[in-house]
Specification:
This protein is α+β, with helices and mostly antiparallel strands. The chain folds into four domains: 96 residues, Tetratricopeptide repeat domain (Serine Threonine Protein Phosphatase 5, Tetratricopeptide repeat, Alpha Horseshoe); 272 residues, TolB, C-terminal domain (Neuraminidase); 98 residues, Immunoglobulin-like (Sandwich); 168 residues, Rossmann fold. It is built from twelve helices and 40 strands. Helix 8 links the parallel strand 32 and strand 33. Helix 2 packs antiparallel against helix 3 and helix 3 packs antiparallel against helix 4. It is globular and about 90 Å long. It starts with a helix and ends with a strand.
């Protein structure tokens, strides 16, 4: 009996040793980084332990928007384990968000050369390298079909008939005018019908075109009804403009429409072979397009567009594009006769005219009149009536003959896919986790309008629990703003326009959002932070920073962006300046670094010019490449649209929540998460991770 007990006791001790070894091995296996200095697996080197601690701090700093701190912490982690690719990957992410894209690519290339990252890292490096190549004009790129919204269902039932014109919305949806079914249909980005609008009780009468007016209302051109229907932004009927006839304010078979900066509405009056003009209230004012000295007159006006102080009109009979001033005086011929076969819709976009012509979609360069073919429908039965870019960088094309609406994209976009980046992970309420995910195309344009079905979320390759798309930043109506005030010596004498501009901006924010004022003096100074109402009586006399010969524009932009990283998803910088720069402007950070820093953190940049004359080219470049504009303080329209323009900047940031099922090792375990985004024939992917709170 004693012998048996002794044997049993020894067996118990042996089993305990094995169990302890198993626990130690499990504990060692749960550690993040491989311990290359120890072969036993029971103990860890100081280097690995210190690297993990610094890495954990770096990930937490990154998710809090403290990118400079994250860079230092990741570099310290690498000082302990120089060859650890996960740390190198995160260091590249921190450099990228800090605007130092060259350094980010360098780190990612190190990891890639070591066999880390796979296709996800390859695609990230390729896209960012391509973005850094400047000076390439993409307006003449070729487009190919990326998706189609068919008017015929899989059961061979008509969903709509004869789509003739399209209008993209800022939220990614599109309006489609259906000539055959006399209706206006709204589609989401996946081609699902959101709503149908049939107009007033009498309905639409052969609608042809739709545009958005300055006040947000929609204008529908009814060809057979010889009138224009004004709808709310949601599609509710409000009133009619015009009636049948040949006098001023009267129409016969109107086709297409546009609006100038003063609110005047121009309509191609096909039956009267002229252009009819209405003021913003819908009153007829004048007509033009008849025969004059040096001009034979319009024969069949169709597409029409306003660009600057010129009105451009397509003629379906002559196949030409003619240019007039805003008063209707003939100026010149932009595209010679017989260039187009039967041009219909013509839309202005970013310095170019997009013309729909039978089976062709072409781009016309203003000034030179150079024509380049963007898309050709081939031998299929087609009649393209409208083509217009949407907010996601696609070309939306209506084909009235095939009864389809095509989503067309550049070939490089289809092959390279989407750029997806998890910007932040919030695990404070673990196991409930919140992700902020930014989705862009290859050219940095935000992808808006995505829905829950466009996302697929996994952790360690297994589907996440309780996944939910909580919201999209493009739907927000709140924006946080930083005003940077130029304190160079050039600002002497511009005190009054400065006061006026700040007060008007604060007033137009209507108490919504937060506003910060930064002086770009010799060193940047935060002058004010709080509600816009606190600046309604702003005076330059309250500024602490004095005028200087060496203003720090670059440091002020960095400080302003830092202020906005943890602000509302819609955020922007307004630079108030007389428009001139000096040698110290980019002494510490170059134009590219500043632009990247703002772009990589979703910050727009616009300029309010306080003096007359041309704004420096560098400021125009930054505004153009960071989703901004340039305004003159005393322009006729005032600054009332500045805030609305900033709110309407597309924003591809999405908030996603899920419940994690991963073990946390009391907050010491690195918890991976992967996300894929699908949109029609394109997709993108990102992989990241986080730490739960320590227990």
């Amino acid at each position: 009996m004693k012998k048996f007990s002794k044997f049993k006791f020894v067996s118990f001790i042996f089993a305990g040793v094995l169990s302890l070894g198993a626990v130690n091995n499990t504990f060692a296996a749960s550690k993040l980084f491989e311990d290359k200095n120890n072969d036993t697996g029971y103990t860890r080197s100081a280097e690995a332990g210190m690297a993990e601690e610094e890495f954990r701090k770096g990930v937490l700093s990154y998710n809090r928007g403290m990118f400079n701190d994250a860079i230092m912490q990741f570099e310290r982690a690498l000082s302990y384990l120089p060859d650890e690719n996960l740390i190198i990957d995160w260091l590249g992410k921190a450099y990228y968000r800090a605007g130092m894209e060259g350094s980010a690519i360098k780190q990612w290339q190190f990891a890639k050369d070591a066999g880390y990252g796979g296709l996800v890292l390859d695609n990230r490096i390729e896209i960012i390298r391509e973005r850094r190549v400047t000076g390439v004009d993409e307006s003449f790129d070729r487009y190919t079909e990326a998706g189609v919204f068919s008017g015929i269902s899989s059961e061979n039932k008509f969903l709509f008939t004869q789509p003739i014109s399209v209008l993209p919305n800022s939220d990614g949806t599109i309006w489609v005018i259906c000539y055959g079914s006399n209706e206006l249909i709204q589609f989401n980005v996946n081609g699902m019908i959101v709503q149908r609008v049939t107009g007033p009780l009498s309905g639409f009468d052969r609608p042809v075109d739709i545009i958005r007016l300055q006040d947000g209302d929609l204008l529908v051109v009814e060809s057979a009804g010889d009138r224009l229907a004004v709808l709310s932004s949601k599609g509710s009927f409000k009133k009619y403009i015009g009636k049948k006839g040949r006098g001023v304010g009267e129409l016969v078979g109107p086709q297409y429409a546009c609006q100038d900066e003063n609110g005047n509405i121009y309509v191609s009056d096909f039956g009267n072979r002229r252009i009819s003009v209405f003021d913003k209230d819908g009153n007829g004012t004048f007509t033009f397009g008849k025969k004059t000295d040096g001009f034979d007159g319009l024969k069949g006006p169709t597409g029409i567009a306003v660009a600057g102080d010129s009105v451009y009109v397509c003629d379906s009979v002559t196949g030409a594009i003619y240019e007039f001033d805003l008063s209707g005086n003939y100026k010149d011929i932009l595209v010679k006769e017989k260039t187009f076969e039967f041009p219909e819709s013509m839309k202005y976009y970013d310095g170019y005219l997009i013309v729909s012509d039978r089976k062709h979609v072409s781009t016309v360069e203003l000034g030179s009149g150079i024509v380049f073919e963007n898309a050709y429908m081939g031998n299929s039965p087609s009649r393209i009536t409208c083509a217009v870019p949407d907010k996601n960088g696609n070309l939306i094309v209506s084909d009235i003959l095939s009864n389809d609406v095509y989503i067309m994209a550049k070939m490089s976009e289809l092959l390279g896919g989407l750029f997806v980046q998890v910007e932040r992970v919030n695990a404070e309420n673990f196991p409930n986790v919140t992700l902020e995910v930014r989705v862009q195309n290859r050219k940095r344009q935000p992808v808006v309008g995505l829905r829950g079905e466009n996302f697929y979320l996994t952790e360690q390759k297994r589907p996440c629990s309780n996944f939910k798309l909580k919201g999209s930043a493009s739907e927000n109506d709140t924006e946080d703003i930083v005003l940077i005030i130029d304190r160079s010596m050039y600002m002497q004498g511009f005190e009054e326009p400065l006061n006026s501009a700040v007060q008007e901006i604060a007033k137009n924010m209507q108490g919504v959002g937060k506003i910060t004022v930064i002086s770009a003096g010799e060193i940047p100074v935060v002058e004010y932070k709080g509600s816009p109402e606190g600046l309604l009586k702003f005076s330059h006399k309250a500024l602490k920073s004095k005028l200087t010969d060496r203003p720090c524009f670059d440091l002020a932009v960095r400080l302003a962006t830092n202020e906005l990283i943890n602000a509302e998803p819609k955020r922007g910088i307004l630079y108030l300046t007389q428009g001139r720069l000096d040698d110290s402007t980019f002494a510490r950070y170059g134009i590219s670094d500043l632009s990247n820093y703002m772009n990589n953190n979703g910050v727009s940049f616009s300029v309010i010019q306080l003096g007359q004359g041309a704004v420096e080219e560098e400021l125009r470049y930054i505004a153009k490449n960071v989703n901004g504009k340039t305004y003159y303080v005393y322009r006729p329209q005032g600054l009332s649209c500045v805030i609305s323009d900033m709110l309407n900047v597309p924003n591809g940031l999405y908030t996603i929540t899920y419940t994690s099922l991963l073990p946390t090792d009391l907050g010491r375990a690195y918890l991976p998460v992967e996300i894929e985004v699908y949109l029609l024939n394109r997709s993108g992917r990102d992989e990241t991770g986080y730490f739960s709170p320590l227990q």
